[in-house]
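seq:
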Amino acid sequence: LQKYIDQASSLKNTPCLAKLNGEGLAALSSAELPHRRMEDWKYTNITKELAQDFKLVSTADATYEFNKDANFINLCFLNNSFVSEQSDTVNFTMTSLNVVDPVFLTSNAQQNFKNDFVDIMNKSFMQAGHIYEFDSALLKPILIHRHYTQEFSLNNITNLYKFNKNAEVKILEKLTSDTSIFLNIASHVIAESNSNIEHCFIQDTKNGSLVFQSCYGTVKRDAHYSNVILNTGAKKSRTNIALSLVDPGAVAEAHGLYALHNDQHHDTLSYIQHDAPHTHSHQLYKGILGDESRGVFTGKVRVEKDSQLITANPVSY
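struct:
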């Protein structure tokens, strides 16, 4: 881990994020590499992947032509940088993460993974991301293109999605790369009352990549948040999902599909927490495995003692 500790120590970040970087670095300095004696990592070994020469790099001079879709509002990111000249005009708020108080990145759901290696790495290297805030229904869905060109680059992204009361939004995020990369992307979601959200990801990076994805969500009264993740790329990938239903009427869905071949490996750990009565959750995960590939799904549901008349349906096959 020392080479990652040294790189995290060299980050020159804004005061808004430096505190989180410091907390992550302190945890990373005393952390163990995930191993099979850890309950949440007993089926997934990433030692060989972390031993590769992944580094923080500057790719400001890179160019790439994005394949935009006219049926969407297109937002284009190349090597973590926003490409405004290829992106569409938006009618919602989009702010750089560098100016936000990190307290807004903390939710009840995130606490379930606060000591997990994925979260520790994300805090240690937090350097890029945006805050997206939606106040109403969007007529078009959003397509976020995230493409990477630098081989063995270490990329860390943290985004906050705030869906205000009565917002109706559909988002698709595509994660792709030309080469093998290390990508750690975290999404913090706040779904306010009566909001209706569909949030989908397609991960199709090059086969030598190591990809961590996290989604930490808080779903409030009568809100509906649906998360769908398709994994086809990366040699090894890990998804952490934690959704908290905090008010009556809250609904959360967490679905996924992994289609793997050769020696690819994907691991999903899902944690749904019912903190209020009359809340509903549903999970459905399916895997298509070829050759020597492997898929893992672990689903946990916690129901607080006063959270009566709830439904929770985890399914995996």
